[in-house]
Each structure stands twice: as C-alpha cells, then as structure tokens.
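Researcher: Batch entry, complex prediction.
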Amino acid sequence: MPSNAKPFALSSRACRTRRQPISGLMAQAVENPDVISLAAGLVDDATLPTAEAADLLTAMLADTGAGRAALQYGTTKGLLPLREALRAHLVHLDGWDPAHIAATPDDLVVATGSQQLLFILGDMLVDPGDVVIAGWPSYFVYTGTLEALGAEVRCVDVDDGGMVPEALEALLGRLDAGGALPRVKIVYVVSYHQNPTGITLAGDRRERLLDIVRRYSRDHRILVIEDAAYRELTFEGAPPPSLKTYDPENRDVALLATFSKTFSPGVKVGYGLLPRDLVEPVVLAKGNHDFGSANLCQHLVLRALETGVYQRHVKRLCRRYAEKRDAMLAALQTHLGDLGPQVHWTHPTGGLYVFLTLPEAIETHSRSPLFARALEEGVLTVPGEYCYAADPTRTVPQNTIRLSYGVCEPDRIRAGIAALGRAVAHVLENP
Amino acid sequence: MPSNAKPFALSSRACRTRRQPISGLMAQAVENPDVISLAAGLVDDATLPTAEAADLLTAMLADTGAGRAALQYGTTKGLLPLREALRAHLVHLDGWDPAHIAATPDDLVVATGSQQLLFILGDMLVDPGDVVIAGWPSYFVYTGTLEALGAEVRCVDVDDGGMVPEALEALLGRLDAGGALPRVKIVYVVSYHQNPTGITLAGDRRERLLDIVRRYSRDHRILVIEDAAYRELTFEGAPPPSLKTYDPENRDVALLATFSKTFSPGVKVGYGLLPRDLVEPVVLAKGNHDFGSANLCQHLVLRALETGVYQRHVKRLCRRYAEKRDAMLAALQTHLGDLGPQVHWTHPTGGLYVFLTLPEAIETHSRSPLFARALEEGVLTVPGEYCYAADPTRTVPQNTIRLSYGVCEPDRIRAGIAALGRAVAHVLENP
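Model: Structure tokens for the complex:
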C-alpha cells in the first residue's frame, strides 16, 4: 500500500473477526508434507465417491430438462424436492412417525454447508454482548464465529455423556441471578460424536437438557442449536434420537446437518430443520448472502439420496472409519497405555475424533516442548486449547490433544500415535 | 407456535433484514405461469451448457485424483489454479500488460456468486449509520442488503453515460459539509450494462470518478465496488476498460464478477479482485460464513476456462441476447413509439435489461392500474420504484419499468411488449 493511501475504516464486526488458531496449524501441515497429520478434520480422500458422482451427474445432464434445472438459479431456501427428501431422511433417521413432528419441507433450509446456517442463526439472534452457551470443550470454528458476532461464549462441562444437564442448569441459574438471562440467546450442542471429543450426548440427557432450556426461556425463547454433523457416521451401537425428537412442536431446536462428512465436502451442502418462526429471518438473511447455494450441488445430493447411492456410501464409510478408530485406540493403548491414570482418552462410537488428556504438567500448546517434539517425531495434532472458547470465568486446560483418524490410512495412524508416544515419553523424561 | 412459547429475541440486524420487494413479484410470476414474464433477471434456460458441463464433469471425475480433489474440501479463499486462471482472464478482458496491475492470484477471492462478496464487503466496512453511495437507480438486491447492514444509502444520478461524476462530487461535497464524510464507506457502481437500466459507465467517466473518490478519502479510504456482473455480455461495440484499470496499485477498487450470467447460475461461482488490505478481513469473514464455496463448482469453472468451453459459450450467449434485445427494442418502437417524448427507453449494448420511462402521470407500482392491466393483458414487469434505494433526500420516480429480455424467446418478448403497449394505451385512455 502506498504511503499516501489511508487505511479502510473497517466495521466493528470486521475488527472482531479474527484468524482461527487452527489456520496456522493447517499451514504447518502444508509446510511439512511428510509429517503424519492427525490434525485435520478432513474426510478420507480414498472414500470420496468419484464414480458415484460421475454416474449421477451424467444421468442428470443427459436429461436436458433436469440438466437445465440444475444449471439454472434455484431458490434461496433450497430445492423443494431436496427439502422433501431431507424431511423424509430425518424421519427415517429418527424413526419418527411422520405425524410425530410438526415439521414440513417448508421448515427446512439448504445452505453452503451447515456452517452457513450456524453463522446465520448466530447473526439473526446475537447482538454484541449477548450470551451463547456451548460445551467445554466444543467445536471451535463455531465458537470463534460467535465471538466475531460479539457473543460472550459461556461454557458447560462435557463428560463421557456429553454436556452435563446439571451444569447447564447451574450456569443458567448463575446468569439469571446476575441479571444476564435476557441476553442468553443460544445453547449450542454437538449432539453426536462431538468435535473435538467424539462424545455423544447421552440419550437420557436429551429431554432433560431441553426442559432446562425451556424453563429458562422466560422473556424470550432460547434457541437450542443441535449440530448433528457426525450423526450418520455412527459405527458402533445405535445413536440416540435427536434432540429434535423432543421438540415435536418444532419450536425450540434448530437441527443442523451436512453432507460434507458423509458424502462429499466438495459439494458443500448442509441443511437445517428450523423452528418455524426462525425460517423467515434465516431465509431473508440468506437472500442477502447469496440468494441460494449452488443449485447443481443440491441436485446432485438429491439424486444421491433418491437412488440410494448416498445410503450405500454411508455404510461403506462407517466400516472404514470404524477400522481407523480401532487402529487409533489400539495404538493409544500400546504407546500411551502404561502412563498411569492421568493419561486417558475418549472412546468414540462414531465420528472422526479422539480426545486425549495428558498429565497436567505436560503442556500441549503450539509453543510447547511436546508439540515441537511431536513434529520432530513426525506427527501433527491439534492442541486441545484451541477447542475451548474464551469463557471469561474459566481457565483453559493445557494438557489435552485432539486426534483425528479421518484422513490417514490405519498404518499411518499407528505410526502417528507411536510418534506421539515417543514425544510424550521424551517430555516426561526431560521435564 | 403454541400460545405458551415466547418469541425469539432477534438481533438488531435481523430486525433490519426485510423481504426484498422483488420476491413478491417472483411469487406472482409463479402463480401466473401463463403470463409472459419480462420481470426476472434469470438467464435463458435454452442457453444453459448442459452438454458442456457433462463433458467437463465426466472428464474430471474419470481422473481419480482430479475427481477426489473436486469432492474434497477446498480453501476459504478458493481454488488456487482457478484464482490464477481468473487473474489471466481479467488481464485478457482488459488487455492489461500483466505487469500493469499490482494484483496477484492472492488478491482474488472466490465466492458463492458475486452477491456473497457484495455482502461480506458491506459487512466488513459498514457499521449501522454509515453511508454507502449508489446509482439512482441501482441494483436493488444490493442496496436492500446494505440497508439490512444498517447503511444509509445515498444516491447519485445515472444518465445515459452511467453514474454522473459531477453529481457524485456534489453529493460527497454535501456529505462533507454536513460532517458525514467520515461515515462514507463505499461507492457502489455497476459498471457495465447496469441492472436495471442496461447503461454502461462511459469510458471517459471512469478515471474521473475514481479521482473524485480518492480526493474525498481523507480520513480513510472509501472503497469503490465495481460490480461487473454483466461485462462479458457485451454484444455491441467494445466495452470500456474496467474501473480497476485505473487502480494499478490495487488499493481503491474491488472488482467483482460472476459466472452466473455468462455460464451457469447453478454453479454459483463469483469472484472478486480486492485491494490487498481487504483480502484478509474478507477471507476471515468468509471463513466464518462457510470456509469456502462449493469446491466441485470451482473445479468445473476452472475446466470451462482452461478448455475454452467458457469463452465459446459466452460468444454464443452474446449472439442470442443481441437478438432478444433487438426484438425488444423493435417491439417498443412499434407499440410505444408513438406516445411522444415523455415515453422513452434505454438502448443497452449488452446485459439483460431495458429501462422504460412513461409519462409522469402513469404510475407503475404493483398496486397501480397499469400493473393490474398489464397482468390482465398477460405481461409481468418490474416496477421501477423497486430499483431506487431509500435515499431520505430523494423522491422515488413512480413512472419507470424494468424490462428483462433474458428469459423469453423473441416471439414472447414481442408479445409481451405488445401486451404492455395495450396496457399503457388503456391507462392513457382511462385516466
């Protein structure tokens, strides 16, 4: 910029919009291509359905009418037949009696991944200074987004059963006592195989959690955002019913999901089943953002659902991710299993993540000896500190690590965990 | 909503986000399928490149590596080879010496249509109460978006040469005198075949316009957004160089364009060449919106550019739209040419729109006798009042109409203008 040019005067929102810490990590992965990355939450390249997509697109574009429809503008809310298919898909996943839930295709909105709906819901509800409640830890891209919107993110403990209802109730009680309840707008729950822990919210907590939120919805309704991005990647046991199941009047829960993890991130198709009175604000906002996500991708996903290609693909994916999770858990037992009870990790029944806790004395952040040593040993992981929002009342644990088995082959996963084990041993021996 | 449910407490932005008036019109078009719509700015269904897209996608997905890359996550900023191709494309369109302009692929951002960049640029620069300057008339979806962001939109006359530089200078002078200059953030210019008038900003106004904006960039730089969505749909004469051409240091102008009008709206790929110090704020915001637009569509557009399929398609499109424009202009002469000098219309050299002015006594709004009569006669058009932002210092003309020749066949265009002519005659005879 030449010296005589004044800077732009950015908006207050722009000033709050910061680089996500994870982005530096991703740059490190690119700069160190030989390092085994257990960091990225990407999906396994080898599983991407190239042949299936080719068949579906060829059939679509060979039919001139269908092809033109896919290449023409769509609607802001999303392709109606896709929204109909998505409603049927949700009914199937939850085993709902179709009459159980007051949700029609009109209550579904298609978006550029579920992230776009997360953003818009935040933007439509949060004014600077408002409060959003999330898990401790939680999906950090969204908590970072909320902070850019000006939200104060307050956190609720997550244990092996997910967000702890009693802790949520206690937090809401404290906020109420402090006069902050009118500012509480959203409770954000990743309800299946949560990023970063892999933990699923227990079935018997779901209705209780909703009841608590309803009880505190005194001045206004507090929205529960149920982020079900990893739900269909369940490969052990049956997943519990969605939180949405306990919202038959369709008024409290925005259920969000995406085809990024289960079909293809490159099509960037996500969707949300929204409380009816939020549909209009969300669609109006999306009209200002882009007046509709890529129609071609919506037509592709619709065909994948209608032909059963999608459902078969998800089954294959689950088998593959189960194998990888098994490889990671076994390698953790082999290489970190003898370090005593202070070292433990989660045992996900689906999704892409294992969350590892080390002794409190071992720091895991990106300037830590362990992080440096792990890179030397040839493995990159996500420091757990990134996964905790900036709750002003809490201290971020420094001894956790997020591990993803999404991208690597089982052999690389084993080698990566072995490298991490060597790094941990080294740091323990050289305190 | 059950009676015991409290409403959500929407954000102040949500409260400012209103239904675009055009949406009611589009619903009317859907409800009256037999009516000839000269309203929608959609592209001609018959021109959509289904066979070309099929060939490109088949070749891409048959190559496993390329196919997986397209179905995997991309980057927030957009596919690097596409950004390289887009830079080359811009250099070609403007005939720049590649060294002429300090713009690299790093200064390009790919988005979900150019609308997403319009939104994000507004969001990164505008705080409620800030001022954005646009044409009178201008592209109303964006001025509506700006109003949702809290901007006060102030307008500058548009004549046959586009935005009038002297009028811009006078407005900036008045804002300065009133102490409002520190709040002026953006000057928005649709530089080619403007929606709604079809008018192109004259070549000899471009540098002057930029100079004026620079002169008033005293406290901070005022961004010029150059919306070039219709540039490549030039079918008569050579279009003038972009405004960006007069910004060789890449600091004042955000040049936005899209493949929606020239290739396929269904791929929703737009892009912007941004002043370097705006790239980071825009990319960070886009990270919060969706961390990248559909990668599959970006790969498709890249192949269309690289193979020349895109360039050939644009040539065919221009021939087709030229024929339709000719049909519309001839029909206007036939059916409205004898109504005296108070009735006149623009003569676009490209794009999709003709702007019609009627005698001041004839109102064109959606509750007007003319609008109702035109629907009865079988034609739907856009009341010109929608195309003027809510500038508090101006009175919206009530006697203009936007006509689009984008969608209909020439015969339907002629029939639609004949119907409009009958409606106008009827209203003139029954005042």
